[in-house]
Amino acid sequence: MRSAFSSSIFRPTMPFINRRSAFSVTRIISSISLAVLFTSVSISSASANENFASCTAALEKEAIQQGVSQQTIDAIFPSLVHQDNVIKYDRSQPEFVQTFPGYFSKRVTEWRTNKGKEMYAKHKTLLHKLSDEYGVPPHYLLAFWGLETNFGNYKGKMPVLDSLATLACDKRRSTYFTKEFLVAVKLFEREKLEREEMVGSWAGAMGHTQFMPSAYTHYAIDGDGDGQINLWASEEDALSSAANFLASLGWDAGFRWGREITLPENFDYRLSGYKNRQSLSEWNALGVMRADGSELGNADTSAYVIVPAGHEGPAFIAYKNFRVIMRWNNSEFYAIAVGVLADKITGASGIKATLPDLPAYSRKDIIALQSKLNTLGFDVGKPDGIIGPATREGIRNYQIANSMIADGFPGLDVMSALDVTLDKHS
Transglycosylase SLT domain: from which residue to which, for each copy (predicted)? Predict the structure, then answer.
């Protein structure tokens, strides 16, 4: 259910789980007890609505215990509506596995590049002030904004309070969403928000920067000085909050995200990946070069090589800030898109390498691949159709055993060697 407009509105895992919970131990225990009450909730529409009333009544009691005013209770709880589609979205799995070329080409576009330059001109003074204060350069803030909501053009349409209440009353991730819902209720009260403006993703991400309620509470700041923090209505609040959040995640001022590189013909692809970090000097000695053919340079900076589309696609070297971007959204594809879009906003040309023409593998294709690898003794865990670290490692080990280029990528050569018949829709 990923939107073409936003890379994180429909992300399957929640990127803004607050690491510095404002809840006391007793309140956490209380939230967990609520989760136990919800385990009997059915996902069928009729029974869901029947149980929703009793569940929200329990949530209301918890909100009152946490100090929410009766005025806020009256403004929210009587009008909560169970959102059947939210449960469908939560249970849905994509039919196809998106490859890097398809992902990247839809997100790093000329429209976003030009719009980013336009937004830079509009907010230049604020952006440089934020850069001085938080160490995050303007073009990165603009890239996040562009990827999250198309610079505010698409912030989601689902009623956030209804969506969060629906997920809180569903057994699958009740504990997490109970906390997020109660935080959203407090935000509604603290910022004097209107229900009609509190719209976002089906999972409750909100505003220009798609913050979950816990991130909103702890990292959102008043950027326009009006005494309110409104991530829907105020671009200044949103940009300031993004800078504060990235700084809190560990953004290292003065460093890039990474860059595109070229690899020597004899490069050992077993050296790629986060586990194989080396200094720039060591990569330089191995013949790794910048995309323009110049030397990578000598420095102690720790970095690692990424080949998101296999040995036939572009290669990148990633620095510390790359991992900070992934703490916003835990995806290498996303982090590369942020970095390249940021570069393009400053006038860079973008990726020099040609993106390979890869099929859109179906989940059935990847499950078949995983099953074959397991059968041959290359354990990748239970086949699930997701190309995660275990699957990449299994592919890499298979490639090594069969004298193939060990890039850990499910290229057509791997599929053919394993006799995987691709789904007819691929």
Answer: 52-343
Q: 132: burial class by Cβ within 10 Å (0-12, 13-18, 19+)?
A: exposed
Question: Number of structural domains, the chain?
Answer: 2
Instruction: Examine the pLDDT at 23 and tell me if it is beyond 60.
Output: no
Would 340 be classed as within a structural domain? no
Of the candidates 153, 194, 147, 199, the residue with the CA atom closest to the CA atom of residue 15: 147
Per the domain annotation, does 164 fall within a domain? yes
- Tell me which residue range forms the domain holding 222: 25-93+155-249
pLDDT cut 70: percent of the chain above it: 88
Query: What tokens appear for 330 in the block?
Result: 């835990």
Question: What residues have CB less than 8 Å from 262, skipping those under 6 apart?
Answer: 288, 289, 290, 291, 293, 315, 353
Indicate if the pLDDT at residue 350 is higher than 60: yes
- Among the candidates 193, 223, 249, a domain finishes at 249
User: What's the predicted TM-score (pTM) here?
Assistant: 0.86
When pLDDT is averaged across residues 82-91 and rounded to a whole number, the result is: 95
Which of 37-46, 78-87, 153-162 shows the lowest per-residue confidence on average (mean pLDDT)? Answer: 37-46
Determine the length of the chain: 426
CATH number of the domain that 182 lies in? 1.10.8.350
